[in-house]
Write a structure and sequence with these properties.
Blueprint (H helix, E strand, L loop, with lengths): L2 H13 L6 H4 L7 E2 L5 E5 L4 H6 L6 H12 L4 H4 E5 L13 H18 L3 E5 H8 L6 H4 L4 E3 L2 E6 L2 H6 L4 H18 L10
Parallel strand pairs: 2-3, 2-4, 4-6
Antiparallel strand pairs: 1-3, 5-6
The structure holds iron/sulfur cluster (SF4).
Length: about 200
């Protein structure tokens, strides 16, 4: 079975999911989207209002900023990345998902990772960092530092919503994304083009 078919089957399964209470309060399950053959997996926290309405990840203001950041890196979401979240259903009032909700929903993300086999993972913000790597980890300490996790290169960065709230973080975040571009050139495509780095 090819990756696209495996992902489609898993998506069908997630759309029927009622394993935690988040499904009761949301409109749509936001499974994820992108290129099944992508070498970069981008992981966020969970759907917000716009994502819950559209059933797609990162389509609100933070998502628009993410697309811009990817663009300056020479990446395009449906070509170079696959984008998913730690939890697939929107937490009420955009609260942070509880450790229990994260723990239950992680099974889907783990299976996405098994299917995608991405050599590079970008973690957007504290919840993604804590959900995948370490529940005690601090994004302010670990952002910009490569982590080797299960044979994959993992880069924690600030969540785009944090950059919208605090534009002073943008320069530091850009430095982190430049490291992703360099790693991509090193292990995926030495000819990868970005006009900006
Ligand atoms: S958040 Fe995840 S575990 Fe909870 S109902 Fe939605 S898909 Fe299932």
């Amino acid at each position: 079975m090819d990756k696209a078919t495996e992902l489609a089957r898993l998506k069908d399964e997630a759309e029927q999911c009622r394993l935690c209470g988040l499904r009761q309060g949301c409109n749509r399950v936001v499974f994820g989207e992108g290129n099944p053959e992508a070498k970069i997996l981008v992981i966020g926290e969970g759907p917000g209002e716009a994502e819950d309405q559209q059933g797609r990840p990162f389509v609100g203001k933070a998502g628009q900023l993410l697309d811009k950041i990817l663009e300056v890196c020479g990446f395009e979401r449906f070509t170079h990345t696959y984008i998913a979240n730690i939890v697939k259903c929107r937490p009420p009032n955009n609260r942070i998902p509880t450790p229990e909700e994260r723990g239950i929903c992680m099974a889907y993300l783990q299976r996405q990772i098994e299917i995608l086999q991405p050599p590079i993972i970008i973690l957007l913000g504290a919840t993604a960092l804590q959900g995948l790597l370490d529940p005690q980890a601090k994004i302010t300490r670990m952002r910009g530092i490569w982590q080797l996790w299960e044979g994959r290169w993992v880069m924690p960065v600030y969540h785009p919503a944090a950059l919208l709230r605090n534009p002073q973080l943008k320069q530091a975040s850009w430095e982190d994304f430049k490291k992703v571009v360099n790693k991509y050139r090193e292990i995926v495509d030495s000819a990868h083009y970005s006009a900006h780095c």
